């Protein structure tokens, strides 16, 4: 479980943002899959139900699901004849940039999950909505780093926007394969400039702690991407994202920014 | 009738009870009662001395302050240690809360008991009180707190001790102290390392934590290419200038102070405060504004937040709607720059990016988001329309076209607690006429950029 919760974080800073707008839609959802146990808050009784007691049988939902999954399965078989990932081989090989996520309508927000420290009992709130002209994703809310009064939790105060993991038919997990790129390219509301983060700068951390054993990011096994705000500056925040893309920056040759040849700290 | 013998007796009774089971319970109770009598006798007479306490520390020193006496009295009559240590700090903080007071409390604790009894609780209490005393960013205070740990007691002596978690509570406490340093961004120094090695040994958990901090801190120290100083300028004008140059990071952008903060007293005796208005505009923005179609309005929008570490300031924008496609004018390049008479070897205009190869493709297949131009930005002491129209009239001096363009104010009633305290401390020589405009080069006056 610890391995599956691990995440790579890049170094992003809180940037000044320019505009605001007024549409509203979203709620706080759980970010865990069914195989990972939910975070159990201190003082809460453990969930003692059997796995079959958690199944809610619904006929119409089942029909819907079968239709959906058969469609996905058909895509998987048919797309293979066109080329890898359903695109022609030449396009796949010559690709230098790719727009992975763009926000151009309400359905683009369904691929993202917003969560905050309310799941551990904190008081931060975070919402997501479409920005001006429905062309951006607007993340906003209030950060509050007062820890919950349960006697165990010492730190609190985070808000997260995280993409959902892509699923193949019958809920098999898929991964993004970004091995032909080396840089994350984002257009964020700051001063209009794109923010590029090379993948070599990402470091391995688990539950907010940097790990001793570092490793280069496995670009063919990317589950999701997330933006976390936790700078302990209580107050409102906002982030506006236009698109998130990938590019191959040939001027950047670094593979990994941190030492791999010895463990830190040395044993 | 000495205490160790009583302890021994209790242990014996415990052993017996384990063998015999329930019937001995009553015997233990009586044994306990038997033990309690001399204790209460002690507390009636003098102080209750702990078992391992040496007699040296209990002798009262001649030159004790009243505070120290009270603390010592409290230390000896403690029942719940954590509460007592919190009390200890509160007692010291009654008159003033400074670094000296904090150090005094630590000194008193060090002197009170040679064994440093209850030091883990004391350190936890001290860590909690540090922000209150304003010493949470002081490395010497952290080292002084580490010094409270007794030396060489918790160092593992053999491989079995080293393998198992030797003195776990103390090690946890040490890690907690280092973690607080980490959270406040304090880098440990050599003294910290020496202390940790003396207290916990070379391969203990606090030592590991120290090594981790020393590995990662320098790596992330300069990760932010636009660093913010820890202490922001207290003058609102300076703060606004710093923030504006931070947003509009152009070398040729001009910061203009349209109005200094001042307080006038009118003839009727009312106090009129003039808030500060500071704007920034680059030459590009100025030329864009000069080309603006006067039929279309420009908007003054805001306030928008800008975070400088833990401080939030607000700014306002002068912007326009995006130009509709039918009104767009294709701008030709200057024919002198690209004409055939240009030298082939020294062209005036080069479209090559020397870092890129010819096959490199940097464009994204994504619809461009069209947005209107931002013509100027400002920060003001008050976010009302009267103040901002002063800014617009100040802008008109450099951009006369702004007088013909209708200006629409779209202001939101956001949080406006902006530099409240510093407005009061203005000196009279800073009072300047309202429309006086002072232009400065932001880059040269920017002493704050590290």
Automatic annotation (TrEMBL), chain A:
Under what name is this protein listed?
Answer: Complex I intermediate-associated protein 30, mitochondrial
Give the lineage: Eukaryota, Metazoa, Chordata, Craniata, Vertebrata
Mitochondrion found in the keyword field: yes
Q: How does it assemble?
A: Part of the mitochondrial complex I assembly/MCIA complex that comprises at least the core subunits TMEM126B, NDUFAF1, ECSIT and ACAD9 and complement subunits such as COA1 and TMEM186. Interacts with ECSIT. Interacts with ACAD9. At early stages of complex I assembly, it is found in intermediate subcomplexes that contain different subunits including NDUFB6, NDUFA6, NDUFA9, NDUFS3, NDUFS7, ND1, ND2 and ND3. Interacts with TMEM70 and TMEM242.
Q: Which family does it belong to?
A: Belongs to the CIA30 family.
- What residue intervals traverse the membrane? none
Q: Name one molecular function that GO assigns to this entry.
A: unfolded protein binding
Q: Whose protein is this, by species?
A: Anabarilius grahami (Kanglang fish)
Q: Name one Pfam family in it.
A: CIA30
| Described function | As part of the MCIA complex, involved in the assembly of the mitochondrial complex I.
Automatic annotation (TrEMBL), chain B:
Q: Quote the cellular component terms of the Gene Ontology held in the record.
A: mitochondrion; nucleus
Query: Which is a GO BP term held by this UniProt record?
Result: cell surface receptor protein serine/threonine kinase signaling pathway
- Sorted alphabetically, which SMART domains does this protein's record hold? ECSIT_Cterm
Sorted UniProt keywords? Cytoplasm, Immunity, Innate immunity, Mitochondrion, Nucleus, Transit peptide
Family per similarity comment: Belongs to the ECSIT family.
Compartment(s) where it occurs, according to its Swiss-Prot or TrEMBL record? Cytoplasm; Mitochondrion; Nucleus
Matching entries from InterPro entries are given as: ECIST_C, ECSIT, ECSIT_N
Q: What is this protein called?
A: Evolutionarily conserved signaling intermediate in Toll pathway, mitochondrial
All residue ranges annotated as the ECSIT C-terminal domain in the record: 282-412
A Pfam family the protein falls into: ECSIT_N
User: What organism is listed for this UniProt entry?
Assistant: Anabarilius grahami
């Amino acid at each position: 479980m610890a391995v599956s919760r691990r995440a790579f974080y890049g170094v992003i800073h809180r940037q000044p943002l320019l505009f605001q707008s007024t549409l509203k839609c979203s709620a706080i959802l759980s970010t865990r899959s069914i195989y990972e146990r939910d975070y159990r808050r201190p003082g809460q009784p453990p969930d003692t139900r059997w796995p079959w007691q958690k199944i809610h049988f619904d006929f119409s939902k089942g029909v819907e699901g079968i239709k959906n999954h058969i469609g996905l399965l058909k895509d998987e078989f048919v797309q293979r004849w066109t080329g890898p990932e359903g695109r022609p081989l030449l396009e796949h090989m010559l690709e230098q940039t790719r727009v992975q996520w763009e926000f151009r309508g309400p359905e683009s927000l369904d691929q993202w999950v917003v969560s905050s420290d309310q799941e551990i009992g904190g008081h931060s709130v975070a919402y997501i909505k479409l920005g001006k002209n429905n062309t951006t994703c607007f993340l906003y809310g209030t950060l509050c780093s007062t820890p919950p009064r349960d006697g165990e939790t010492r730190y609190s105060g985070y808000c997260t926007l995280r993409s959902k993991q892509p699923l193949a038919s019958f809920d098999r997990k898929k991964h993004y394969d970004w091995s032909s790129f080396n840089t994350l390219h984002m257009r964020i509301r700051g001063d209009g400039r794109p923010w590029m983060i090379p993948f070599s700068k990402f470091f391995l951390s688990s539950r907010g702690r940097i790990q001793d054993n570092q490793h280069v990011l496995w670009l063919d096994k990317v589950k999701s991407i997330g933006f976390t705000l936790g700078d302990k500056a209580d107050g409102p925040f906002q982030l506006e994202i236009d698109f998130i893309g990938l590019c191959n920056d040939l001027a950047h040759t670094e593979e990994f920014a941190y030492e791999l040849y010895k463990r830190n700290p040395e044993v | 009738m000495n205490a160790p013998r009583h302890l021994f007796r209790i242990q014996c009774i415990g052993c017996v009870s384990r063998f015999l089971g329930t019937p001995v319970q009553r015997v233990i109770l009586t044994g306990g009662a038997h033990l309690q009598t001399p204790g209460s006798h002690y507390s009636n007479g003098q102080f209750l001395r702990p078992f391992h306490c040496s007699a040296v520390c209990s002798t009262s020193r001649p030159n004790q302050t009243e505070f120290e006496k009270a603390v010592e009295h409290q230390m000896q009559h403690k029942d719940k240690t954590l509460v007592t240590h919190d009390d200890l700090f509160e007692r010291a903080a009654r008159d003033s809360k400074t670094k000296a007071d904090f150090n005094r409390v630590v000194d008193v604790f060090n002197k009170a008991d040679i064994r440093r009894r209850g030091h883990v609780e004391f350190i936890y209490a001290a860590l909690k009180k540090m922000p209150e005393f304003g010493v949470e960013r002081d490395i010497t205070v952290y080292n002084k707190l580490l010094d409270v740990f007794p030396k060489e007691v918790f160092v593992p002596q053999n491989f079995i001790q080293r393998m198992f978690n030797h003195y776990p509570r103390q090690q946890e406490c040490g890690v907690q102290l280092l973690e607080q340093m980490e959270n406040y961004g304090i880098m440990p120094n050599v003294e910290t390392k020496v202390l940790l090695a003396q207290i916990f040994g070379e391969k203990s958990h606090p030592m590991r934590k120290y090594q981790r901090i020393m590995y990662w801190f320098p790596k992330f120290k300069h990760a932010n290419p636009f660093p913010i100083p820890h202490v922001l300028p207290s003058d609102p004008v300076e703060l606004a200038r710093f923030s504006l140059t931070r947003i509009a990071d152009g070398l040729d952008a001009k910061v203009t102070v349209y109005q200094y903060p001042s307080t006038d007293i009118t003839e009727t005796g009312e106090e009129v405060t003039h808030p500060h208005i500071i704007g920034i505009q680059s030459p590009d923005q100025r030329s864009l504004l000069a080309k603006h179609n006067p039929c279309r309005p420009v908007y003054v929008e805001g306030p928008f937040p800008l975070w400088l570490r833990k401080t939030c300031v607000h700014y306002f924008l002068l912007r326009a709607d995006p130009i509709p496609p039918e009104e767009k004018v294709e701008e030709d390049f200057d024919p002198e720059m690209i004409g055939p008479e240009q030298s082939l070897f020294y062209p005036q205009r080069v479209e090559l990016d020397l870092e890129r190869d010819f096959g490199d493709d940097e464009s994204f297949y994504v619809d461009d988001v069209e947005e209107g131009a931002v013509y100027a930005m400002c920060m003001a002491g008050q976010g009302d329309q009267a103040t901002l129209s002063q800014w617009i009239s100040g802008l008109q001096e450099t951009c006369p076209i702004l007088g013909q363009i209708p200006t629409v104010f779209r202001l939101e009633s956001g949080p406006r607690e902006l530099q409240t305290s510093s407005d009061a401390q203005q000196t009279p020589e800073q009072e300047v006429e309202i429309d006086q405009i002072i232009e400065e080069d932001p880059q040269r006056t920017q002493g704050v950029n590290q």
